[in-house]
Write a structure and sequence with these properties.
This protein has a single domain, classed as START domain (Alpha-D-Glucose-1,6-Bisphosphate, Chain A, domain 4, 2-Layer Sandwich), CATH 3.30.530.20. It has 3 helices and 8 strands. The chain has helices at 17-24, 36-45, 125-146; strands at residues 2-7, 11-13, 53-59, 63-69, 72-82, 86-91, 99-107, 113-123. It is globular.
Length: 152
């Protein structure tokens, strides 16, 4: 079992650093992204995203879980916050592999910020062969999707 690192490119978000942090640091805010209408809109914007069914989204400010068919239930929790700068997430025991994920947010100016996502995943060699490309692509797609959110 080894730790693999996946890093997104740096993205510019046309909102102030604090607004982006405030929205992303509360997992209850994710629920609106997973409603069926929003999922259809995301699919139009990113047609290469594989089809999947997401159900049973539940969240608190610090933790969320949802069922992805055919994977199963996935849980994510915030394990650390550095106000306006960083959110660290980890997988719960229900995920297929353990991971830590950092969302770093830095100001560009008063109305824009930049963001980068770093994922460290504990993968055995067989599982790495199956998911490596998907994690590389996925981390970039997630960071791109986060630039499309309205942070008002």
């Amino acid at each position: 079992m080894g730790t693999e690192k996946y890093t997104s490119s740096i993205k510019i978000i046309p909102y102030p650093q604090k607004a982006v942090y405030d929205r992303l640091s509360n997992l209850e805010n994710l629920e609106q992204l997973f409603n069926p209408a929003k999922m259809a809109e995301i699919k139009k914007q990113f047609p290469n995203v594989p089809d999947f069914k997401l159900n049973n989204f539940r969240s608190t400010a610090d933790e969320c879980s949802f069922t992805v068919s055919p994977v199963g239930t996935i849980g994510v929790l915030i394990v650390e916050r550095e106000p306006s700068k960083m959110i660290k997430l980890a997988g719960s025991k229900s995920v297929p592999f353990q991971f830590n994920c950092w969302i770093q947010i830095l100001p560009v100016d008063e109305t824009n910020c930049k963001m980068k996502i770093t994922l460290h995943a504990e993968l055995n060699s067989m599982f790495k062969m199956l998911v490596d490309k998907h994690l590389k692509d996925g981390i970039e797609r997630v960071s791109e999707a986060l630039t499309k959110i309205k942070y008002e």
